[in-house]
Each structure stands twice: as structure tokens, then as C-alpha cells.
# Entry
Amino acid sequence: MTNKRVEAFTDGACRGNPGPGGWGVLLRFADREQQLYGGEAATTNNRMELTAAIRALASLTGPSQVRITTDSKYVMQGLQEWLPNWKRRGWRTAAGKPVKNMDLWRHLDELANQHQLEWVWVKGHSGHPENELADRLANRGIDEMRM
# Structure
């Protein structure tokens, strides 16, 4: 594992759920910042939250120590707590149903295994500057997609 330390602030947004959605990422490495965002015409908030985390990790050029700050307990708990059980049960929930968003969970799991992750949860829309910026980027993803 490398000593490369990266901070990632991720957020997803949806106008309607389902509806048009966007994802936003603020990355910090050393003294550099990078902003990423995008959107999808028909999606859900959870899919956009997952996509933001995926895009953050996929943008890294090599194994890194990554602190991901998110307002999504769904993404954080999913990767840290639920995913091992889903995999053990053949991608089924405790109730025996297929895991929702399995395609994205598998991709996130694959990327997460390439890095050393630390997860930080923040309350959304509470004034956390980087989370607010990630939210603006996610909404920009929706706005620019709709043009």
C-alpha cells in the first residue's frame, strides 16, 4: 500500500426518487483539489451516492489511503457492514431478496479493495463546507445533463 493520502468528499442528488440524478466529488491530494461531477436521466438517490464513491475511487491513479467523507449512511454502512454478508449469501439480503444496486456495489467493492479506506459520516445540509460543495457539484451534474 502506498503512503499517498487522498481526501474524497462525495454526494449524490436526485430530483424525484427515481428521477434525474447527479453525483459530485471533491478530491484533495497534497495541495491539489479536483472536482468531478456527472448525471443520469433516470436514477435514484442511492445509485447517485454509490456512483459518487465509485467515481472518486476510480479517478485515483494507484493504491492510496483514502478518507471518504459522505452524508450517505447507505454507502458507508453498506460497504463496511452489509457487503460481507451479501457476498456470503450470494448477493442476497438477510430476507433472501437480491441486493438492490448490486452492479454498483460490486464495482465499489472491487475499487475499495485496491485502497485503504477510512469512512467519515457527516450530516447532510448541515454547513460542512466540503459536503456542501459535493452537493452543489451533484446538482450541477443534473443541471448540465438536462441542457
User: Anything to note?
Assistant: The first helix runs from residue 45 to 58. The radius of gyration is 15 Å.
